[in-house]
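hey all, quick one before standup. I had two proteins in the batch that finished overnight and I want to keep them in one place so we stop losing track of which output belongs to which input. First protein below, input sequence then structure tokens straight from the run.
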Amino acid sequence: MTVIADIKRLTDEAAALLKGMISIPSPSFSEDEVCSYISGWMQDRNIAHERVGNNLVASLMTEIGRPTLMLCAHIDTVTASPDYSFDPYQPDYQEAADIISNIRNEIVKPSDIVAGLGSNDDGASVTSMIAAYRYFLNNSGKAGIPNLILVLTCEEERSGKNGMTGLWTELDSRVDFAIIGEPTGMKAATSERGLLVIDATAHGISGHAARNEGQNALYKALEDIQKLRRHEFERQSERMGKVNLNVTQINAGTAHNVIPDRCDFVIDIRPTERYSNEEILEELEKICSSELKPRNLANRSSATFKDSPLQKAAEVLGIGTFSSPTTSDWMRISCDAIKMGPGESSRSHKKDEYVLVSEIADGIRTYIDFINLL
């Protein structure tokens, strides 16, 4: 069987698997049923694997001492938007094709697409990675087949503790580098910004506005916000530039005639690999009088290692590279990695989600070619 025939067969089966996954609601923390479905599908095709909670792990170890590549994508989704134009779980494919034709401004046939919640983020990467893994599994008797670990995780969208966060302590010693599957148009993200959200509280003393009593917490918050607007982080990333910081919410006051004794505001920070989240928090605490409480310090920035074989493989294949503004399971691992998968990030977390079958085929083909270079 030729590689072209392999890709066609693997693509057809990947698209069918993805439609089955979409039909099962699987928001973060509710992945049990979709995990069972994927596990059963893999078992029917003799793909040996282990279920760890609602995560699936399969290993293909062909040569002792050879580096091991992890293929990782997530099986959970966000909740469905109420604005969907078609059923997000069991779409009428002619209706979906007509809607997507209007979105793309070109004729799209029902057979050209897989539509519904999770099709693009992250089902296309899940099924394409399974297909690439199957390709090497089916050819494992040949020389030069790499060591692979396929990891399908839960709770990625909500940064849950039972997904990659919990798995990595076990996988760390087994994995040398990784491809994180997310919709990137099969371009390779060689860095991604982290996320640090800080809940800030300025404290004052309440009083009657008519008598100018008290200490206005709102004014204290505005003073800190002005300091934050002017603040520049000294260290800049070669890939991502400067750390981005924005105040995105503010709330204070109970009545028009009462000086507020408390003002709450939210700081959204997108770090680069030049700072840890702890370093950023410490730096901001030095310039603000408000109380600063981080929601999560674990959502760090990531970057592909210097002289990485992953980046070299991308260069050989002519795969474009970029810096990603979004987070993924990459921030939960410590090995060398890139982020690359079929579909487009612009379709994620929106109504009328879809992926083209041709994008799945390209994903499978590119993963196979990429892995063969490692």
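OK second protein, same deal, sequence then tokens:
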Amino acid sequence: MNKNFAVLLTGLLLLPQIAAAKLFKAEEFTLDNGLRVVVIENHKAPLIKHMMWYNAGAVDEKYGRGGSAHLLEHLMFRGTKLVKDGEYNRIMHENGADSNAFTSYDMTVYHQFADISRLEALMALEADRMQNLNFDKKAFETEQKIVYQERKQVIENNPAAPFSERLNLLLWGNSPYGHPVTGFSEEIMALTADDVRDFYKSYYAPNNAVLVLAGDIDAAAAKKLAQKYYGKIPEKEVIKQETASESQQFKEHLQMKLPQINTPKLVYKYLLPDSSGLKGSIYDYIVLAEYLGGGQTSALYRELVDIRKIAVGVSASYSFNAAANSVFTVSAIPAPEVSQLSLKMALREARAQALQNLTPEKLNKVKKKMVADLVFANDNPEDAAYWLGYMLINGFSLEEAKNYADNIKAVTADGVLRAAKEVFLHSSEAEGELLPQAASKGDKQDD
């Protein structure tokens, strides 16, 4: 999940009294083949956001076949039995549509944004590649090399990437969540067309997906079109791999000194139960993250950056997109000449102070900001589709999503403090320190 969206998600709720419980006008229906369709009406402009969310991602890959889900995402833009290789992007361009996709641990999502008059074309193409993907040898080898180069350029050439992947592995251990979504380079090049075809046949099915339509359309029109283009695709038996939740409590520490690192970083990751096993409400944890480190008005940022000037950046987030466990993260970047030890101590003190000084008045300000952010987001079909699709694919019902603001409003200071106790006292912890590698004697140091 990208960083901007994580901020949006955590910064979600508190409508002024006008908007009450329902954040947007949304309806849902399910086709006979199991495809769940959600429609968000927004008639301010003749535009449509079309998003197909598959309940399948990197955690569903077979052991040793890392990168299958991501490579399949690339191949979905190649040919099918009906559309020649290279035609998909050309058709999108000619129809004035923005088209893209992303792969995560638990989901793979394909999305387009276009004039409402192009919706049928979008649906026809998406329905076609849901069932008729062509695993041409040349196309497969081309995309395999592209994915391999992406891994090299975006991940392995990023000085901080080894730290992030190692810390993730330390947190998750043998769980699939400890494995990079991209797969490792050697895994990518070892994949065969049969490996990726197997993933496609196992998980790309209407009964394992959610279609979100946001924009200038109503549910009746959407149902007619969805039935026309998706209704005849047969459902499949989808067997998801179960990921056991981590139950034993642990504390781990990682310190990495890497070349080309100019900015140190301190990261704490706390492993919590999934949303159904949390003590208290999931909304308590979402608000806790926003209060502590949800932006430049958050408690930790104001104390460590604005007041003490001991850090140049502080953030906190809560991720509940994992089927097995959820993760609370706090990170900080020290100001120049500030040691990691000083930053650790200051962060601990500021956190304790922020929780001790939490009042209903302070909490209300945080919640109002969260709601205001969501209200603005829901005014945009793209943001609304993104947010709602994410909630639904992670197990929220449509009614829960529509009532999200009221659930945030119901969060109390006591609930936030209980959540903080679970995070910082009762959860497993992985502490990571990223430091510049000191130059060896005789090495030239940059000024």
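Flagging for whoever picks this up: The radius of gyration is 23 Å. Residues 1-21, 439-447 have pLDDT under 50 and may be disordered.
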